Amino acid sequence: MKDIFSNVIELAKKICKAKLTEGDRAVDCTMGNGNDTAFLSSLVGKDGRVYAFDIQEQALVNTSKKLQELNFLDRAVLICDGHETIEKYIKEPVRVFLFNLGYLPKGDHSITTQKETTLQAVQKCLNLLEPDGIILLVIYPGHDNGKAEQEALVRYSSTLDQKNYNVARICLTNQVNNPPELLCVEKVLPR
Ligand code: SAM
């Protein structure tokens, strides 16, 4: 693998590739324009399932268009609701949860993820996570909400019992301007 750490979004995608095989279930917890939903759909294959959440109706419009172009529509379930309501929609174990937090770069910056609801969602994802499955969170501490999410998520995830979870935080300590960081919560396999 080349240039593993220059971009944490790409690193999160590499981890998705390593974890997912055809037939798996994955969740894009922040659908946005559907780039990550499309990527996860390519990995789970025609027998797999990707659930995707966003609170903006426009996200579902943009994402279904993208999935249709790729012929992936039948692999995905698009949900217009907050990820903090996940238990209402998903009743089966999930191998990968992906959160790309914050706001859409070219969208309305006031519509952004919030630490309270992000934390609620992560706690609910833990209940649905398969053994050896992973929750990946790309966090943007360069804006106020993102900083608050970073602090809350790091504090909460560091309390998870190491017998049950491996928690890793990847931040690029020599990059300027508060670069995004990646927080990973992997559920350990029973021994
Ligand atoms: N994954 C996206 C893509 O591939 O284009 C980018 C996601 S963007 C950085 C963050 C998204 O999270 C925004 O579209 C925003 O509407 C959404 N969002 C904000 N609060 C949310 C919530 N409580 N539940 C689900 N999505 C939320």
From TrEMBL:
One of its GO terms (molecular function) is methyltransferase activity. This is Putative rRNA methylase. InterPro entries: MnmM_MeTrfase, SAM-dependent_MTases_sf. The keyword Transmembrane helix does not apply. It comes from the Bacteria. It holds the Pfam family rRNA_methylase. Keywords: Methyltransferase, Transferase. The keyword GTP-binding does not apply. The lineage of its organism: Bacteria, Bacillati, Bacillota, Clostridia, Eubacteriales. One of its GO terms (biological process) is methylation.
